[in-house]
Amino acid sequence: MKNQQLHERRSKVIAQGMGALYPLYVEKAENAHVWDVDGNKYIDFAAGIAVTNTGHSHPRITEAVKAQIENFSHTCAMVTPYESFVELAEKLTELAPGDTEKKAIFLTTGAEAVENAVKVARAHTGRSGVIAFKGGFHGRTNMTMGLTGKVAPYKAGFGPFPNEIFHAPYPNAFHGISTQDSLQALEDLFACDIEPSRVAAIIFEPVQGEGGFYQAPQDFAEAVRALCDKHGILLIADEIQTGFARTGKMFATEHIGIEPDLMTMAKGIAGGFPISAVVGKAHVIDSALPGGLGVLTLVLHLVVSRA
Ligand SMILES: Cc1ncc(COP(=O)(O)O)c(C=O)c1O
Predict the structure, then answer these.
(1) pLDDT tens-digit profile of 46-87?
(2) Measuring CA to CA, which residue among 157, 156, 160 is closest to residue 143?
(3) pLDDT score recorded for residue 20
(4) Which of 164, 184, 278, 293 has the most CB atoms at less than 10 Å from its CB?
């Protein structure tokens, strides 16, 4: 009853563009369970779309939030930094796959992380092109909408998008697209649309989420890594949905055994508090000038994610 009343109120004041999957209004949530306003209890398989990897209201996260608020809420880590800012970067750069020395930047949303990964890739290579995959989801800002490989509902009516973005099919046995088909499509892009020496980055999800939960085949990921190395293109792994143990390892690229040049992280990093990161090879990520990358409001979220 209360669910229905709230849903009617919502329909009057919330734009339909913010879709509503379930007319179920949450009263409380704990670990894997949610309770709605009518007293029904559910097992939460949605997890805020792959965000609450440690469960709802994990006690360590709750404690970290409380403790931080007692101390300070904001200073701007780019003006007067604090320990959690450094400590989390130390942890993530250690966890990121591969032997190359890494550095990190912190942002607030997944789309911001993707935007910044593209900025870094362009600054490092001096090139403009970016290749993404059909069915891929990278966010809802202008740049990331452009990268997202799905028109309805993410791009319909919202153009124009930034130029120099190209899409290739993601290999998908279910839809009859082999690794060879996808690799050929990349070669076709190089032949028809953009020469590889103008491509800054190829961005891919190790497991497509919005695209339908399709895993990149091992031979495809390895071939794309080799293609990037051949042409001096940077490989960006968008681990925003697959990161933080969603696939059984800390990052999905660990299953494949390749080292991306840049990784985007968000969602599970802070269990619902808005923090995202780009972690990448130090010599790559340091291509941006001081002040060229950053965000203001981070402190609470950094503390949460190290909890
Ligand atoms: C793979 C991937 N990239 C980027 C994003 C965008 O993240 P945000 O919604 O935090 O901007 C998402 C969000 O669903 C995602 O799954």
Answers:
(1) 999 999 999 999 999 889 888 888 898 888 888 888 898 899
(2) 160
(3) 86
(4) 278
| Together in a domain, 16 and 73 | no
**Residue 33 and residue 157 in one domain:** no
For residue 76, the model assigns a pLDDT of 86
Question: Which residue, chain included where needed, has tokens 């400590």?
Answer: 87
C-alpha span between 100 and 221 (Å, rounded)? 19
Tokens found for residue 19: 């879709």
Is residue 296 within 8 Å of 85, Cβ to Cβ? no
| Same domain? 75 vs 131 | yes
Structural domain including 115 reads 63-306
Q: Is a pLDDT exceeding 90 seen at residue 30?
A: yes
Q: Are residues 41 and 148 in the same domain?
A: no
Residues 10 and 120 in one domain: no
Q: What is the pLDDT of residue 113?
A: 98
Strands 262-265 and 276-281, bridge-based pairing = antiparallel
134 CA from centroid of ligand 1 (Å): 15
Report yes or no on 141 lying in a domain.
yes
The ligand 1 site (C-beta within 6 Å) comprises: 49, 109-111, 114, 137-139, 205, 209, 238, 240-241, 266
